């Protein structure tokens, strides 16, 4: 009797095991190896699947790897399964890349980089393709926002009004730069002309996290494509769906085959293969500091150009002359938005001792008033679930650490509901600089509040971690605001706001929060090389 047709192979890194999968466990290890060890099993997953989201949105979801403008199966048949963090139900499996698929994607990107349809394209036409893509993303706002809400758990209203509108704006912003990539002339006297050409780097590997799937994809694709590079982009294994759908729109926008290749896959397989690939000229990464370190090592194999955007433990300083109401509102949204899963979250608030008790009272009241937890598809919801069970358990472990260290639990600190990964918004006060909950990135709805008396103390506490991503200063003293902003070790400082970034300004960190800048004109530098051309205008040596 023929064996039942296996539906998938689980890789050693698979986190989500679909009940519909026939695995060695079900066959029995020895039986599996006897029957299947000489050839890989090709799985029965289709390349597209009709999905119906919890809000009724119908989606013709691509499941394949997007290589050369086509959705294809992974060579090994490997898949990964994505779950709804609200109730842990399975959404779908998608094909997962490993190093052989990365090889194919890199070959496609390399061929596209040299093909006349991309390398000789008029820069304004390159910009037009990005405008086309922006229009298609805008037209599909509801569908794409639905996918990110379903896959990641962020409130639909936020996905639409913040993530999707930012993604469209970023694509348009870089579309406009496509025909404005200017070199320089350098005056060194009459006998010689020097000019620079700002040329694309080549094939760029881009590795993104799960907290803003589409935003992270467009932040990276926009400047890379505007400057004429080609791309192999890997989504996070927790949130592959919207980024795969973007592949469909990239083809529809008219990009030539191979210019953008999108892979779903695990970090330790597909991500590591991208970082170490000798056919990739640059790697741009957003994710944790620990992963950035391993990418940096792997990228040394061919001395890749690198941009790393990593974690943070961003401080928000409140001086006693600040507008308290504003400081409370920004302080709350600065940590609790996106379920605290924001790299620039102002997760530490430092309050001057003269207003310390009042501030705590008011931010507690604001948190209790605003934080409606629940179904992210409901209009009323402010806070959805944490992205995965593993991440949820990690955040809960920091709550225990805070209690054990002697911090005061002001509110929250509990699980919420009987299914899904919900955590009540948690605030600890009386947090000392050296506490673990003050030093380590929690990446959840988790705020640590500490106290200072002088400006010097505030700056010292603000700079006391290994991170340096964002920082906020609340004061009505304009001189003090600028003085403190200059002394804080961070890539971005907001005065009287929090996490108030803009795509036209550089975004990046110092210390262990990253290397290089994304966004703004600065990102154009990150995706080009300045080639110096020396022209001898004299007649002899
Ligand atoms: P992560 O580092 O585990 O994963 C991020 C991406 O890297 C994923 O696509 C993953 O598959 C891939 N990856 C994992 N291991 C890899 C490896 N060995 N080689 C190559 N790729 C690998 O991070 P995460 O936990 O998924 O994301 C949360 C982290 O991202 C937080 O620390 C947060 O601060 C950070 N983040 C930073 C920014 C920023 O701009 N600075 C933005 C968003 C998130």
Automatic annotation (TrEMBL):
GO terms for molecular function: aldehyde dehydrogenase (NAD+) activity. Residues 71-533 form the Aldehyde dehydrogenase domain. Its EC number is 1.2.1.3. GO terms for biological process: polyamine catabolic process. InterPro entries: Ald_DH/histidinol_DH, Ald_DH_C, Ald_DH_CS_GLU, Ald_DH_N, Aldehyde_DH_dom. Signal peptide: none annotated. The active site is at residue 309. Keywords: NAD, Oxidoreductase. PANTHER family: 2-AMINOMUCONIC SEMIALDEHYDE DEHYDROGENASE. Belongs to the aldehyde dehydrogenase family. This is aldehyde dehydrogenase (NAD(+)).
């Amino acid at each position: 009797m023929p064996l039942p047709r296996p539906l998938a192979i689980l890789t050693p890194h698979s986190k989500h095991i679909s009940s519909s999968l026939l695995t060695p466990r079900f066959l029995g290890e020895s039986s599996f190896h006897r029957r299947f060890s000489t050839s890989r099993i090709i799985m029965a997953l289709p390349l597209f699947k009709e999905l119906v989201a919890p809000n009724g949105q119908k989606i013709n979801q691509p499941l394949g790897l997007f290589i050369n403008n086509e959705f294809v199966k992974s060579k090994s048949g490997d898949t990964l399964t994505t779950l709804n963090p609200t109730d842990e139900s399975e959404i779908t499996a998608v094909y997962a890349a490993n190093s052989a698929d990365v090889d194919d994607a890199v070959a496609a990107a390399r061929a596209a980089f040299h093909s006349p349809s991309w390398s000789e394209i008029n820069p304004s036409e390159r910009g037009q393709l990005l405008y086309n893509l922006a229009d298609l993303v805008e037209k599909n706002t509801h569908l794409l926002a639905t996918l990110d809400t379903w896959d990641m758990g962020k409130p639909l209203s936020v996905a639409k009004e913040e993530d999707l509108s930012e993604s469209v704006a970023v694509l348009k912003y870089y579309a406009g730069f496509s025909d404005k990539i200017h070199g320089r002339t350098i005056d060194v006297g009459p006998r010689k002309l020097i000019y620079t050409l700002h040329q694309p780097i080549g094939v760029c590997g881009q590795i993104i996290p799960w907290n803003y799937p589409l935003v992270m994809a467009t932040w990276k694709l926009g400047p890379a494509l505007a400057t004429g590079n080609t791309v192999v982009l890997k989504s996070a294994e927790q949130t592959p769906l919207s980024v795969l759908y973007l592949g469909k729109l990239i083809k529809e926008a008219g990009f030539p085959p191979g210019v953008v290749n999108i892979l779903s896959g695990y970090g330790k397989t597909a991500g590591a293969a991208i970082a170490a690939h000798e056919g990739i000229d640059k790697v741009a990464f957003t994710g944790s500091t620990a992963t950035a370190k391993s990418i940096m090592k792997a990228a040394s194999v061919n001395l890749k150009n690198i941009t790393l955007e990593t974690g943070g433990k961003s401080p928000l300083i409140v001086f006693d002359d600040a507008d308290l109401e504003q400081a409370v509102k920004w302080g709350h949204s600065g940590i609790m938005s996106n379920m605290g899963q924001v790299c620039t979250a102002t997760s530490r608030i430092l309050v001057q001792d003269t207003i310390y008790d009042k501030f705590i009272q008011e931010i507690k009241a604001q948190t209790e008033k605003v934080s409606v937890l629940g179904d992210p598809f409901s209009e009323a919801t402010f806070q959805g679930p944490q992205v995965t069970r593993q991440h949820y358990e990690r955040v809960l472990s920091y709550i225990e650490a805070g209690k054990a260290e002697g911090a005061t639990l002001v509110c929250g600190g509990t699980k919420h509901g009987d299914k899904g990964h919900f955590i009540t918004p948690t605030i600890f006060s009386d947090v000392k600089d050296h506490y673990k909950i003050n030093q380590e990135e929690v990446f959840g709805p988790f705020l640590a509040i500490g106290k200072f008396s002088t400006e010097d103390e505030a700056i010292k506490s603000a700079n006391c971690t290994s991170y340096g991503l964002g920082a906020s200063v609340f004061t009505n003293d304009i001189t003090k605001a600028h003085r403190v902003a200059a002394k804080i070790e961070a890539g971005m400082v907001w005065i009287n706001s929090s996490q108030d970034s803009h795509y036209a300004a550089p975004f990046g960190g110092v210390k262990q929060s990253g290397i290089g800048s994304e966004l703004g004109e600065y990102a154009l530098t990150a995706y080009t090389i300045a080639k110096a051309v020396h022209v001898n205008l004299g007649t002899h040596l």
